[in-house]
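Support reply, case 0932

Customer input (verbatim):
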Amino acid sequence: MEQVNKIRAKKMMLWFSMISISMTFAGLTSAYVVSKSRPDWLEDFSLPASLYWSTLVILLSSLTFWLAKKELTKQSKTTAAYLWATLALAIAFVMFQFQGFSSLVEMGYYFTGAQSNVTTSFLYVLVLVHLAHLVAGLIVLLVVITNFNRGKYATNPLGFSLAHTFWHFLGFLWVYLFLFLYFLR
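Our regenerated output:
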């Protein structure tokens, strides 16, 4: 019974964390919508191409993590390969995000300062806050890879399952942000 309560508590902690992260982004995207009525809002702004690529990459990383979970019961090298692929795709996602920042600077859009504007400042904030959470996801992914290699999930896959849920949440969150920014420019 005590073990069931621990499992329930860990799952509840994850859900509370994801709900609080969702509320943070709900507040940021609400502020974005309210700010669209400002006279200095950019109407003809287009998202950098690297943000499109990063969306594809994070979706692929969710697929590879799902495949790793599907293979987990076998404790095979295939599971490890899918986990490493997920990590590689996550790193590619981060690289595409920073490439997006470089593209914004090349277009003359800055986060702060005299050359900044509210539209791109919101874009920077939304992407940077998501990246901060993705860094937590990368740490979780590294822990999962380490624990998998040590055989810890053979008897208790809870940590793997929680990481899997959190990773899909981060992917969903990015897709939401991308679609939000794409349709509400």
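We compared this against your earlier run and they match. Two observations from our side: The first helix runs from residue 2 to 35. Residues 2-38+49-183 form a domain with the Four Helix Bundle (Hemerythrin (Met), subunit A) fold (CATH 1.20.120.80). Please reopen the case if you see a mismatch on your end.
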